[in-house]
Amino acid sequence: MTTSIHQPNDKLFKLSLAKIPVAKEFFLAHLPADILKQIDLNTLEFQKETFIDEAYKSTEADVVYKVTIGNTVGYLYLLCEHQTEVDQWLAFRLLGYMTRIMALHHQQNPTDPLPVVYPIVVYAGEKPWDAPLDIFQLFGEAESLARSTFLKPYQLWDIHRTDDDELSQEQLSGIMAFSLKYRKTRDFKQFLKSFLPWLHEIEIQHDETCGKAFGRILLKYIIDASPQGNKELLVQEAQHY
Question: Is the C-alpha dihedral spanning 218, 223, 226, 231 positive or negative?
């Protein structure tokens, strides 16, 4: 992230909006009312960093302001776009810029909550802007699925809180999870009583697809994760199968 300014458009945009009075007037005129209610524009603090991809340094400029939002910190992100052609993928690239701002803030303030970043695109091109204003249209036929899943809570499989009988219902992924669950078990012999017959069954039933190769992956993991005594016990117990 650098602070270099390459083009006349960039200079006008960046040098002007780096001035607090100019920026404050701009935000008062262009921020939605519900956003303005939550922001204290008297706390505007210009940030020197730029977050633009190297390939777009000649056709874009950005200005970032840190600001107080309620009882926390947020950022107002201004992107000046003046490409010859309207960039249909800007919403996707803009998401990357916003994520970089959050990442830098987190790096500098690792115990703070993530900041809200509010983006505004200032378009200075001659052609009418017809690109999507949000990212979801960029998913094409999967737009509906993207809207229902993107930035929603992630799915969690907590294997230490999953019963072993439930793990066994999934023969292949189940033994993987079983191995992860008991990688630090103190009763290694008891672990092997369940693991080795399960592994033997997989090698027989899936011999033509992934049985033996998958078995080698599992055994290598068990050996690498175990102390020397457990490795010897594994070799000893495996001889019965």
Answer: positive
